[in-house]
Amino acid sequence: MGNEEKRFDPQIQRIDQITERIGRYVGSRFAGQEDSFQPKITPVKFILLRTVYLNQRCMVADLSREVNLTSGATTLALNRLEKEGLIRRQRDQADRRIVWVELSEEGEALVEKILWQRQQMFKQMLSVLTEDEQDLFIKLLEKISFKLCGQK
């Protein structure tokens, strides 16, 4: 590699530094908050739980699409969540091929706790911006996410 190839884009370096600082901030906000009530929640587990929470109940196929996993990988994650007492599965009475996933009381309480914590953290992060800056920041994040994820 020549010297030209080793140079890093300054904008990318700034983004990297910013995301590291924000990552440390997020980590410090949640450090020491684990208790016996809150099992280790991976991003995939959280997306599964949040999706069920927002929809009241979901089919396994819908959850697989939401987290972009195979049905087998989704089933493994759901097995762990069920073992942790956060969800329950129920066969549809009319069509036994369909399995519905619902949150347990513990699962619902956990999702609400995490969503509240995230909301408080995002409010604090946005509080350093003016209202116009907040609107612009959110619009820019939406633009990036829509372009990358193909959503509208």
From TrEMBL:
Record's keyword annotation contains DNA-binding: yes
Superkingdom of this protein's organism: Bacteria
Listed Pfam families: MarR
Gene Ontology terms, MF aspect: DNA binding; DNA-binding transcription factor activity
Claim: Phosphoprotein is one of the keywords in the record: no
Domain HTH marR-type: 8-146
Keywords annotated in UniProt: DNA-binding, Transcription, Transcription regulation
Coiled coil: none
Name of the protein in question: MarR family transcriptional regulator
Organism of this sequence: Thermoactinomyces daqus
